[in-house]
Design goal:
Layout (H helix, E strand, L loop, with lengths): L5 H19 L12 H19 L8 H24 L4 H23 L8 H15 L6 H6 L2 H9 L9 H15 L4 H7 L6 H11 L7
Helix pairs in contact: 2-3, 2-4, 3-4, 3-5, 5-7, 7-8
Amino acid sequence: MRRMSYSNRTVITVCFGFFSFAVSAQSVTDLACKPPISRRLWHDNVDKAQAAALKSGLAKGDNDDVVHYVNHALLQQVNSLQCRIDSDSMGDQRKIGYLRGLDRMLRKVASDYRGRSFTPSNLPILLTAYDEAIQQDKKIQSIEAIVDRQEYEVANVLLASQAFDGNPGLRSAQNKVVLKFATLHPDKVFITLKDNPDVPFRDSLIKLAGYNNPRQLYD
Protein backbone atom coordinates (compact mmCIF):
# COMPACT_ATOMS: atom_id res chain seq x y z
CA MET A 1 0.00 0.00 0.00
CA ARG A 2 1.34 3.42 -0.90
CA ARG A 3 2.08 5.83 1.87
CA MET A 4 -0.40 8.64 2.21
CA SER A 5 0.95 11.96 1.03
CA TYR A 6 1.30 14.84 3.46
CA SER A 7 -1.50 16.79 1.77
CA ASN A 8 -3.88 13.83 1.98
CA ARG A 9 -3.06 13.30 5.63
CA THR A 10 -3.71 16.98 6.28
CA VAL A 11 -7.11 16.86 4.59
CA ILE A 12 -8.13 13.77 6.55
CA THR A 13 -6.89 15.27 9.81
CA VAL A 14 -8.88 18.45 9.22
CA CYS A 15 -11.98 16.47 8.27
CA PHE A 16 -11.63 14.23 11.31
CA GLY A 17 -11.19 17.27 13.53
CA PHE A 18 -14.34 18.83 12.10
CA PHE A 19 -16.23 15.56 12.56
CA SER A 20 -15.06 15.27 16.17
CA PHE A 21 -16.13 18.84 16.86
CA ALA A 22 -19.53 18.22 15.30
CA VAL A 23 -20.06 15.08 17.35
CA SER A 24 -18.85 16.72 20.55
CA ALA A 25 -21.25 19.59 20.00
CA GLN A 26 -24.15 17.17 19.73
CA SER A 27 -25.85 17.06 23.11
CA VAL A 28 -28.08 14.26 24.28
CA THR A 29 -31.10 16.46 23.60
CA ASP A 30 -30.15 16.45 19.91
CA LEU A 31 -30.46 12.67 19.85
CA ALA A 32 -33.42 10.31 20.12
CA CYS A 33 -34.22 10.96 23.78
CA LYS A 34 -35.78 14.23 24.84
CA PRO A 35 -35.51 14.73 28.61
CA PRO A 36 -38.19 16.85 30.25
CA ILE A 37 -37.39 20.36 31.40
CA SER A 38 -37.14 19.13 35.00
CA ARG A 39 -34.03 17.12 34.10
CA ARG A 40 -32.60 19.25 31.31
CA LEU A 41 -30.14 21.00 33.64
CA TRP A 42 -28.54 17.70 34.69
CA HIS A 43 -28.17 16.57 31.09
CA ASP A 44 -26.62 19.92 30.20
CA ASN A 45 -24.13 19.48 33.03
CA VAL A 46 -23.11 16.09 31.66
CA ASP A 47 -22.69 17.64 28.21
CA LYS A 48 -20.42 20.30 29.73
CA ALA A 49 -18.41 17.61 31.52
CA GLN A 50 -17.97 15.79 28.20
CA ALA A 51 -16.67 19.00 26.62
CA ALA A 52 -14.31 19.60 29.54
CA ALA A 53 -12.96 16.06 29.25
CA LEU A 54 -12.34 16.56 25.54
CA LYS A 55 -10.58 19.83 26.26
CA SER A 56 -8.32 18.10 28.80
CA GLY A 57 -6.81 16.02 26.01
CA LEU A 58 -8.24 12.78 27.35
CA ALA A 59 -9.20 11.60 23.87
CA LYS A 60 -5.92 12.48 22.17
CA GLY A 61 -2.81 10.40 21.66
CA ASP A 62 -0.48 8.64 19.25
CA ASN A 63 -2.42 5.37 19.12
CA ASP A 64 -5.28 5.81 16.64
CA ASP A 65 -7.15 2.76 17.94
CA VAL A 66 -7.09 4.02 21.53
CA VAL A 67 -8.08 7.53 20.43
CA HIS A 68 -11.08 6.14 18.55
CA TYR A 69 -11.98 3.88 21.49
CA VAL A 70 -11.86 6.75 24.01
CA ASN A 71 -13.66 9.22 21.72
CA HIS A 72 -16.46 6.73 21.19
CA ALA A 73 -16.79 6.20 24.94
CA LEU A 74 -16.70 9.90 25.79
CA LEU A 75 -19.29 10.82 23.18
CA GLN A 76 -21.53 7.95 22.06
CA GLN A 77 -21.27 5.79 25.18
CA VAL A 78 -21.95 8.69 27.53
CA ASN A 79 -24.86 9.93 25.39
CA SER A 80 -26.34 6.45 25.27
CA LEU A 81 -26.01 6.13 29.04
CA GLN A 82 -27.78 9.45 29.54
CA CYS A 83 -30.65 8.27 27.35
CA ARG A 84 -30.96 4.95 29.16
CA ILE A 85 -31.06 6.68 32.53
CA ASP A 86 -33.69 9.14 31.37
CA SER A 87 -35.92 6.58 29.66
CA ASP A 88 -35.83 4.13 32.58
CA SER A 89 -38.95 3.60 34.69
CA MET A 90 -37.14 4.60 37.91
CA GLY A 91 -38.22 7.70 39.83
CA ASP A 92 -37.24 11.23 38.89
CA GLN A 93 -34.94 11.82 41.87
CA ARG A 94 -33.06 8.59 41.23
CA LYS A 95 -32.56 9.59 37.59
CA ILE A 96 -31.22 12.97 38.67
CA GLY A 97 -28.90 11.25 41.13
CA TYR A 98 -27.40 9.04 38.42
CA LEU A 99 -27.06 11.96 36.00
CA ARG A 100 -25.30 14.01 38.66
CA GLY A 101 -23.07 11.03 39.36
CA LEU A 102 -22.17 10.77 35.69
CA ASP A 103 -21.30 14.47 35.65
CA ARG A 104 -19.06 14.13 38.74
CA MET A 105 -17.44 11.02 37.33
CA LEU A 106 -16.51 12.64 34.02
CA ARG A 107 -15.10 15.69 35.77
CA LYS A 108 -12.99 13.51 38.05
CA VAL A 109 -11.76 11.52 35.07
CA ALA A 110 -10.56 14.74 33.42
CA SER A 111 -8.98 15.94 36.67
CA ASP A 112 -7.28 12.61 37.37
CA TYR A 113 -6.07 12.43 33.78
CA ARG A 114 -4.42 15.83 34.13
CA GLY A 115 -2.87 14.56 37.36
CA ARG A 116 -1.60 11.44 35.55
CA SER A 117 -3.70 9.13 37.70
CA PHE A 118 -6.27 7.99 35.14
CA THR A 119 -5.56 6.02 31.97
CA PRO A 120 -7.82 7.14 29.07
CA SER A 121 -8.31 3.59 27.80
CA ASN A 122 -10.06 2.81 31.09
CA LEU A 123 -12.92 5.21 30.31
CA PRO A 124 -15.09 2.67 28.43
CA ILE A 125 -14.56 0.18 31.26
CA LEU A 126 -15.55 2.82 33.82
CA LEU A 127 -18.73 3.73 31.96
CA THR A 128 -19.72 0.09 31.61
CA ALA A 129 -19.11 -0.44 35.34
CA TYR A 130 -21.21 2.65 36.12
CA ASP A 131 -24.07 1.30 34.03
CA GLU A 132 -23.83 -2.09 35.75
CA ALA A 133 -23.76 -0.42 39.16
CA ILE A 134 -26.89 1.56 38.31
CA GLN A 135 -28.71 -1.66 37.42
CA GLN A 136 -27.80 -3.11 40.82
CA ASP A 137 -28.37 0.05 42.82
CA LYS A 138 -31.84 0.75 41.48
CA LYS A 139 -32.85 -2.71 42.74
CA ILE A 140 -31.28 -1.90 46.15
CA GLN A 141 -28.65 -4.57 45.56
CA SER A 142 -24.98 -4.33 46.50
CA ILE A 143 -22.46 -2.93 44.04
CA GLU A 144 -19.53 -4.50 45.92
CA ALA A 145 -18.86 -7.22 43.34
CA ILE A 146 -18.82 -4.68 40.50
CA VAL A 147 -16.32 -2.49 42.34
CA ASP A 148 -14.19 -5.49 43.25
CA ARG A 149 -13.79 -6.47 39.58
CA GLN A 150 -12.24 -3.12 38.64
CA GLU A 151 -8.69 -1.95 38.95
CA TYR A 152 -8.05 0.79 41.49
CA GLU A 153 -8.34 3.89 39.31
CA VAL A 154 -11.67 2.73 37.86
CA ALA A 155 -13.12 1.65 41.21
CA ASN A 156 -12.00 4.89 42.85
CA VAL A 157 -13.68 7.12 40.26
CA LEU A 158 -16.80 4.95 40.27
CA LEU A 159 -17.36 5.55 43.99
CA ALA A 160 -16.32 9.20 43.70
CA SER A 161 -19.44 9.71 41.57
CA GLN A 162 -21.40 9.68 44.87
CA ALA A 163 -24.25 8.09 42.91
CA PHE A 164 -24.17 5.03 45.16
CA ASP A 165 -23.79 6.63 48.58
CA GLY A 166 -27.00 4.95 49.72
CA ASN A 167 -26.13 1.52 48.37
CA PRO A 168 -26.23 -1.35 50.90
CA GLY A 169 -22.80 -2.51 49.74
CA LEU A 170 -21.12 0.90 49.86
CA ARG A 171 -18.99 0.28 52.95
CA SER A 172 -17.72 -3.04 51.64
CA ALA A 173 -17.04 -1.47 48.25
CA GLN A 174 -15.09 1.36 49.89
CA ASN A 175 -13.00 -1.21 51.74
CA LYS A 176 -12.23 -2.90 48.43
CA VAL A 177 -10.96 0.40 47.04
CA VAL A 178 -8.78 0.96 50.11
CA LEU A 179 -7.30 -2.51 49.71
CA LYS A 180 -6.63 -1.94 46.01
CA PHE A 181 -4.82 1.31 46.79
CA ALA A 182 -2.74 -0.20 49.58
CA THR A 183 -1.78 -3.15 47.40
CA LEU A 184 -0.63 -0.78 44.65
CA HIS A 185 1.21 1.48 47.11
CA PRO A 186 2.58 -0.63 49.98
CA ASP A 187 4.81 2.29 50.97
CA LYS A 188 1.65 4.24 51.87
CA VAL A 189 -0.03 1.54 53.95
CA PHE A 190 0.28 3.32 57.28
CA ILE A 191 -1.01 6.60 55.88
CA THR A 192 -3.89 4.64 54.38
CA LEU A 193 -4.64 2.95 57.71
CA LYS A 194 -4.53 6.29 59.51
CA ASP A 195 -7.31 7.51 57.21
CA ASN A 196 -9.16 4.18 57.33
CA PRO A 197 -8.58 2.71 60.82
CA ASP A 198 -11.56 0.34 60.81
CA VAL A 199 -10.86 -1.74 57.70
CA PRO A 200 -11.26 -5.47 58.43
CA PHE A 201 -7.92 -6.32 56.80
CA ARG A 202 -5.83 -3.95 58.92
CA ASP A 203 -3.48 -6.66 60.21
CA SER A 204 -2.90 -8.03 56.72
CA LEU A 205 -1.94 -4.58 55.46
CA ILE A 206 0.51 -4.10 58.31
CA LYS A 207 2.15 -7.42 57.42
CA LEU A 208 2.28 -6.36 53.77
CA ALA A 209 3.95 -3.09 54.70
CA GLY A 210 6.44 -4.85 56.95
CA TYR A 211 7.32 -7.35 54.25
CA ASN A 212 7.92 -4.68 51.62
CA ASN A 213 9.62 -2.16 53.88
CA PRO A 214 10.44 -3.34 57.43
CA ARG A 215 11.56 0.16 58.44
CA GLN A 216 7.94 1.34 58.22
CA LEU A 217 7.17 -0.75 61.30
CA TYR A 218 9.56 1.33 63.38
CA ASP A 219 9.20 4.80 61.85
